[in-house]
Amino acid sequence: MIQTINISQKLDLFNEYWSPRIVGELNDSHVKLVKLKGEFVWHQHENEDELFLVIKGKLLIKLRDRDLWLNEGEFVIIPKGAEHCPVAEEEVHVMLLEPKSTLNTGDQQNERTVEAQWI
Amino acid sequence: MIQTINISQKLDLFNEYWSPRIVGELNDSHVKLVKLKGEFVWHQHENEDELFLVIKGKLLIKLRDRDLWLNEGEFVIIPKGAEHCPVAEEEVHVMLLEPKSTLNTGDQQNERTVEAQWI
C-alpha cells in the first residue's frame, strides 16, 4: 500500500525516549522516528551506515575526536565503524535511516537495547 | 569526513528543476535534493524503491490508480515497479533517498534524463 506518511502525526503516537519506531521500509532499509532526551551510550554499527535527520530540537552527536551539532533540517551520516554517542540536552525528534539489520545500540547490548516496532 | 549537512543551505546552491543533486551516501544509497516545478514523465524503477520527502511546497505524485498529495514534512515510498509521475504546480523542494543505481527517469531514457552530481 503506497501511502503518504506525515512525520509529525507519527511522532504524536509515542512518547518513549530512545525507542525508535519504524515508519517505512525501502530496499534493505528502515525509516525510523525516535525521540531523544539525555545521553545515550557509546556504540558503533559494524556493517551499517546510519543517517540522523533532525526534525525538531538540537542534537549533539559526540564522536571520539570532536562534537557534531545538528539543528532542525540538518542531517549527518555516521559511517559504519565510527563510534558515536548521541546526546539531547532537551527533547529532540529525529528521523533515522539505516539497514533493517541495525540495532539501536550497535555493537553494545545492554539495558538500552530495544527492538524497533512499526507504528 | 563526517559532517553536518544543512538541507536548506544545500538547496540554495542550485536552481535547475528536475536535476537531483547528491548530498550524501550511506550503504548502497544516495541522499539527493531536487527542485521540482511542472510535470515530469511517467516512469518506474525496476529494481529500486524510492523515498520522496517534501522539504518545501506541495507535491502531487500521480499513480496509475490514484493521486497522492504530499505536504511539507510528509514522505512516500514508491516501491520498485510502481509507475509514478511527479507533478509540482508550484515549486517544490524534495529530499530523495534511493539506491545509487537509480536513474531519475527510471525505465525511460529521454530528454529529461540527467545524471545526478554531488554538491
Describe this structure in words.
The structure is a homodimer of 119-residue chains. The first copy, chain A, has a single domain (7-118), classed as Jelly Rolls. In chain A, strands 2, 3, 4, 5, 6, 7, 8 and 9 form an eight-stranded mixed beta sheet that branches. In chain A, 4% of the residues lie in helices and 49% in strands. By secondary structure, chain A is mainly beta. At the A-B interface, strand 1, strand 2, strand 4, strand 6 and strand 7 of A face strand 1, strand 2, strand 4, strand 6 and strand 7 of B. Strand 1 of chain A pairs antiparallel with strand 7 of chain B.
Keyword list:
49% strand, homodimer, 9 strands, Jelly Rolls, 119 residues, eight-stranded mixed beta sheet
Unreliable runs of chain A? none
- What is the averaged pLDDT score of chain A? 96
Name of the CATH class of chain A: Mainly Beta
Q: Structural class of chain A, please?
A: mainly beta
Quaternary form: homodimer
Give the name of the CATH superfamily of chain A. Jelly Rolls
N- and C-termini, Cα separation of chain A: 15 Å
Largest sheet of chain A: 8 strands, mixed
Known CATH architecture of chain A: Sandwich
The run of helices and strands of chain A is: EHEEEEEEEE
| CATH level 3 topology of chain A | Jelly Rolls
Number of helices of chain A: 1
**What is the radius of gyration of chain A?**
13 Å
Strand content of chain A: over 45%
For the record, the count of structural domains of chain A works out to 1
Helical amount among residues of chain A, as a percent range? under 10%
Report the principal-axis shape of chain A.
globular
Please report the total strand number of chain A as a whole number.
Answer: 9
Most residues in contact, chain pair and counts: A-B, 35 and 35 residues
